[in-house]
From TrEMBL:
Superkingdom as given in the UniProt entry: Bacteria
Keyword Nucleotide-binding: yes
Domain Aminoacyl-transfer RNA synthetases class-II family profile stretches: 25-321
Cross-referenced PROSITE patterns: AA_TRNA_LIGASE_II
GO biological process: L-asparagine biosynthetic process
Entry keyword annotation includes ATP-binding: yes
Protein EC: 6.3.1.1
Protein name: Aspartate--ammonia ligase
Catalysed reaction equations from the record: L-aspartate + NH4(+) + ATP = L-asparagine + AMP + diphosphate + H(+)
InterPro entries: aa-tRNA-synth_II, aa-tRNA-synth_II/BPL/LPL, AsnA
Enzyme class: ligase
Name of the gene encoding the protein in the UniProt record: asnA
Keywords annotated in UniProt: Amino-acid biosynthesis, Asparagine biosynthesis, ATP-binding, Cytoplasm, Ligase, Nucleotide-binding
Family to which this protein belongs: Belongs to the class-II aminoacyl-tRNA synthetase family. AsnA subfamily.
Organism of derivation: Diplocloster agilis
Amino acid sequence: MSKIVIPEGYQPLLDIKATEIAIKRVKDFFQRELATQLNLRRVSAPLFVLPESGLNDNLNGVERPVKFGIMERGDAEAEIVHSLAKWKRLALKRYGFQMGEGLYTDMNAIRRDEETDNIHSIFVDQWDWEKIIDKSDRTLETLQDVVKSVYEALRVTEKYIANRYSYVECFLPEEITFVTSQELEDRYPDCTAKEREYNVAKEYGAVFIMQIGGRLKSGEKHDGRAPDYDDWKLNGDIIVYYPVLDIALELSSMGIRVDEETLLSQLEEAGCMDRAGLPFQKALLNHELPYTVGGGIGQSRICMFYLRKAHIGEVQSSIWPDDIWEYAKARGVNLL
C-alpha cells in the first residue's frame, strides 16, 4: 500500500526545471568523486539477464522479477535485473581489470513488489560498483577503509551542493560511526530493526551498520541479504539521519563478496544449495572469479538527500497511485 507524508510547512525551493539541473549537478559531481576515491572506471551494464545464468540478485528471495519473452530465443524468458551485485564480479574478469582496479555503472531496475512511500519507488536507479582485492584483504579493516572512502565522496558532494545552493546546509558529520547489527539489537532490545536504525542514525548523524544477512541472537535478521554475493560478516549499510523527514535514510549497501567457503555456508544457511549449480556460482566455487568488494549507491536517494526533497518522486520519474499524485499536488509538491 502506497504511503506519503509531506511535512508541515515543507516547500520545494527549486521548481521542476531547476531541480532537473540540480540532479545532473549532483550525479556528475558524485560519480567523479566516487571514481577517484575508489579507482573505478565506468562501464556499460545490462538491463536484463537470463534466469539460468544465476546472475540476478534474489534480494530477500520473495520479490518477483519482471520477465519477458525474447522472440529470437523462442520466447525464452529474460529477467529485468534487481541489481548487478553478481554481474559486476564476472565483468571484472571478462574486461581484464587488475588488482586494485574497479568499475562502476548505472544500474536501472524495476522492483514490482516494492511498497512505495517517500523514499521507495518501483523504479530503482543506483551506481553499482565493484573492485578487485586480494583474498588476504577480505578483512574488517579493508571494509571499513572502503566505507570511509565512499563516505568521503558523499561528504564532499554535500559541501559542493551546499556551495551551489544557499538553502542547503551540511548535515553530514566529519566521520562515520561503525556499529554491528548485533550491537544495535543489544542496545535497543525492544525496538524493531528500523527503529534501531533511526535511533542510532539520529544519535550519530551517519552510521555504517555491519553484518547484515545472518540471524541475530534473538533469532531474527536485521535485514535480508541474498546468500551468494555479500559475506554476511563483512558487509553493511550506510545510513544517515535526514531531518527533512525525521528518518534514517539508507544511501548505500556494500560488502566484501563471498569466497568459496562463505558461499557454501551461506547457501546452506539460507536453504538454497541448488544455486551452487548455476553458472555464476559454479565459476566462483571453481576459483575462476576475482575476490572483490562492491556495493550500490542510490542515485535518486542521494539527489533527494542533497536537494532536501520530501519525496523521491521529486527527483525521479516513476508511477504513483492517483491519490498520491493528488495529495502531493495539493501541497505544492511536483512528482516527476
